[in-house]
Design a protein that fits this description.
alpha+beta; 57% helix; four-stranded antiparallel sheet; 184 residues; single chain; elongated; two-stranded antiparallel ribbon
């Protein structure tokens, strides 16, 4: 039974971590290095994460500065940023790239909040699916005689508490993301 609970918690933690990654990719009105986490640059024929070929800094609330370690990759970084879904227009001086983060319109903020809600709902469903799988595992253990009915019931209760805790955590993170998106 402890193995089932441990496996369940591990899967739920991974799900929460994936939710954080999804939320980090949602653009807010502020500059953030995490916005560029999914951008890959053609670095001498290899698709390489942007943060592995450059330094990304945030000197001001609405400014991102990207300084490539190898000047030859500057144009590739510009192309990768322009091709991304972020909608930024990089400005290069031949040594560094500056990106001004424009403020979001009210309409765009509402779209991003809606997107965050959809993402969080997908993860809540995922957490519930993990609970279902774990409950099925407990039922199999009962069938094979590895646990008693009392242990199965206690296992169901513990899995439900885990589920409630992780769903509450998802909801909290959604509220934080909503506030972050809606602030001007």
């Amino acid at each position: 039974m402890d193995q089932v609970k441990k496996k369940t918690e591990d899967r739920m933690k991974k799900s929460l971590s994936a939710l954080e990654d999804e939320f980090n990719a949602i653009r807010t009105g502020r500059a953030s290095a995490t916005l560029f986490d999914k951008i890959r640059v053609d670095y001498y024929g290899t698709e390489t994460p942007l943060n592995q070929v450059s330094t990304i800094s945030i000197p001001e609330a609405r400014l991102v500065v990207i300084q490539p370690w190898d000047k030859n990759v500057l144009n590739e970084i510009e192309k990768a940023i322009q091709k991304s879904e972020l909608g930024f227009n990089p400005d290069s001086d031949g040594k560094i790239i500056r990106i001004n983060i424009p403020p979001l319109t009210e309409e765009r903020r509402k779209e991003l909040v809606k997107l965050a809600k959809n993402i969080s709902e997908k993860f809540r469903v995922g957490i519930r699916n993990i609970r279902r799988d774990s409950n099925d595992d407990l039922k199999k253990l009962l069938k094979t005689g590895d646990i008693s009915e009392d242990e199965e019931k206690r296992g169901f209760d513990e899995i439900q508490k885990l589920t409630d805790s992780y769903i509450k955590d998802i909801n909290t993170r959604l509220e934080e993301k909503d506030k972050e998106i809606m602030e001007i």
